[in-house]
Structures are given as C-alpha cells and as structure tokens.
C-alpha cells in the first residue's frame, strides 16, 4: 500500500459527511464489538484492506497523533488527541441523530 496522500481537512470533512449519513451503525464485519471511530470508518486508509494493510505511520490522520505516540502499533487507539477527536465525533453523531428524530 502506498503512503496516504489525502488532504487532512478533506478527510475530516468526509468523516463528518459519513456521520451525517448514518455513520457508525452495526458493521457486519465486526458486529460483536462496538464500532471504533476512524478504524471502522472509510476515512481509515486501511478500511477494507485486510490483505495488505499499510502502516499507520503513512496515514494522513497521523498528523493528529502526538509524535511520542506515533510509533504505537495502532496510534489511533492510544493517542489522547485521537481519543479527544473520537469524543468530538461521537457528540456530533449524537447531535445529528437527535436532530433527525425531530
């Protein structure tokens, strides 16, 4: 897999659109566990690439991970800034769902 050359802002806009369109429902790939923000999203560079996943260090989202955590196997899981982004995304997802029920 090649280095992720996507624009970070465009990736985050896509993630927002993904949420607005229903986002993290139950995945048939992993219905036994809660969905993971970013890893289970089409914004992840390794989404649907189980055969030859690229290293997370090549993902555009690595810019959101503090330098000292970038060497972790899955930095999206261990990074505090990514966890904060997850909380932000979940709050947006909740707001979108509440708004659509009105």
Structural class based on helices, strands and sheet pairing: mainly alpha
Number of DSSP helices?
3
Distance between the termini: 43 Å
Please tell me how large the radius of gyration is: 14 Å
> Mean of the pLDDT scores?
75
Order of helices and strands: HHH
Contiguous low-pLDDT stretches (5 residues minimum) are none
**Largest β sheet strand count, sense and barrel closure:** none
Bin the strand percentage. under 5%
Tally the structural domains: 1
- State the share of residues found in helices, binned by percent: 25-40%
Principal-axes geometry comes out as globular
- The total of beta strands comes to 0
Detailed description of the structure:
- By secondary structure, the chain is mainly alpha-helical.
- The chain has one domain (8-101).
- The chain is built from three helices and no strands.
- It has helices spanning 8-20, 75-78, 80-101.
- It starts with 7 loop residues before the first helix and ends with a helix.
